[in-house]
Design a protein that fits this description.
Number of strands: 8
Largest sheet: 8 strands, parallel
Structural class: alpha/beta
Strand order of the largest sheet: 6-5-4-3-2-1-8-7
Number of helices: 13
Distance between the termini: 59 Å
Order of helices and strands: HHEHHEHHEHHEHEHEHHEHE
Strand content: 5-15%
Helix content: 25-40%
Shape: globular
Number of domains: 1
């Protein structure tokens, strides 16, 4: 029964990527009267932001230091993990499925306080929600997981992580409901990560619906993002997605992420163009990590080139691209102020004004950031 349901969903996706007015009306009716705290919202700036894990956001020893860093530098935005890559939800979310499986782990004990503090400091607040990489839910509800056709059990990648099934309506609703909950709590923007199918592991062992291919995967992901956009519309929040850096260069990456289709459906798209993540020989460099300016510049050049058309001219596209930049060490050389600033310059040299910094340890290079007293020289 599960297979036939998924196959039916797949056919609908292939032949009807757009969302019908009936679906739109249904969710607007359900959502129209739900309150959201407009008094906690911040007017969107030209985003210059940092990523913060749920653990750090919930720790009073560390979070105030990040607020101070933002107050004293050109930064104006914070991206807070509400659902991380392990599938755990970091606050007391009002989501029945999350409660029933025990997915809530209160790493952030008082999210409302954090939202108010950010508002008091005029910090733009982005809620990061990891979508389909969800080992916790997959293990608790195997019926909602991507399955292994050889074993009949849960499929896992090479790291042992599992994915929830993007084809399933219950999974889509689960993640969009969390986004709505974040919007009601005062976040200014929702950012989806892992909005994709698995990229590594024994991919041939995955039990996909009949006919699954790259076209079908792109249709599933694109339709999900469109549905999220419709359901979030009543809350007046921005919607963004994170994508592989490789998507700026190729469309056939095998995970359902099509750069052009996604940028057409969201307010912002954030390619993860970390120089350390490019393979040897990329853009002609034996060690891409040693060329932070050139790698970021060329990747964004490709992103602009593949996105601009009559419906979205180049200037519009530039205003929707907001790259993730590298502020961490991986390989040679180590990254310091010069390497971080080189990436920011490469971004600005394309006329792209917004960017985000990633450091898994949430330790950002202050010397790479323009302080307010030096802002006239930025």
């Amino acid at each position: 029964m599960r297979f036939s349901s998924r196959a039916a969903i797949s056919l609908i996706l292939i032949f009807g990527l757009g969302i019908s007015s009936q679906i739109e009306d249904k969710y607007i009716v359900l959502s129209r009267n739900l309150p959201y705290p407009s008094s906690l919202r911040v007017e969107k700036p030209e985003v210059k932001g940092i990523h913060v894990t749920s653990w750090v956001a919930g720790d009073p020893r560390y979070f105030p230091n990040l607020i101070k860093l933002i107050d004293e530098t050109e930064l104006n935005t914070i991206v807070i993990d509400l659902k991380e890559a392990d599938g755990r939800i970091a606050y007391e979310a009002d989501i029945p499925l999350a409660k029933s499986v025990g997915a809530i782990e209160k790493r952030i004990r008082n999210l409302d306080k954090i939202v108010r503090e950010c508002k008091d400091h005029n910090i733009y607040k982005i809620a990061r929600i990891v979508l389909f990489k969800d080992t916790f839910l997959a293990e608790k509800r195997a019926d909602l997981a991507i399955r292994n056709k050889k074993t009949g059990g849960i499929w896992r990648d090479y790291k042992g992580d599992a994915f929830s099934d993007p084809y399933l309506e219950e999974i889509q609703d689960y993640n969009i409901s969390l986004a709505e909950d974040a919007a009601r709590r005062g976040f200014d923007e929702i950012q989806f990560d892992y909005v994709r199918f698995p990229s590594d592991g024994p991919l041939k062992d995955i039990s996909y619906p009949e006919g699954h291919n790259e076209e079908m995967a792109i249709a599933v992901i694109s339709k999900f993002v469109e549905l999220a956009r419709v359901r979030l519309a009543p809350y007046n929040v921005q919607l963004s997605v994170d994508v592989f850096g490789l998507t700026t260069l190729r469309d056939d990456v095998g995970i359902g992420q099509h750069f052009k289709q996604l940028i057409d459906r969201v307010d912002y798209i954030s390619p993860m163009i970390y120089p350390s993540h490019y393979w040897k020989g990329s853009y002609g460099y034996k060690n891409p990590n040693s060329a932070p300016y050139d790698i970021v510049h060329k990747a964004l050049r490709d992103a602009i080139k593949k996105s601009a058309d009559e419906s979205q001219p180049e200037e519009v596209v530039k205003n929707k691209i907001r790259p993730w930049l590298q502020d961490f060490d991986l390989g040679y050389p180590d990254y310091g102020p010069e390497e971080v600033r080189a990436q920011i310059k490469a971004t600005r040299d394309h006329g792209i004004k917004e960017w985000l910094l990633w450091n898994p340890g949430v330790k950002y290079t202050r010397e790479a950031l323009v302080t307010h007293r030096d802002s006239s020289n930025n």
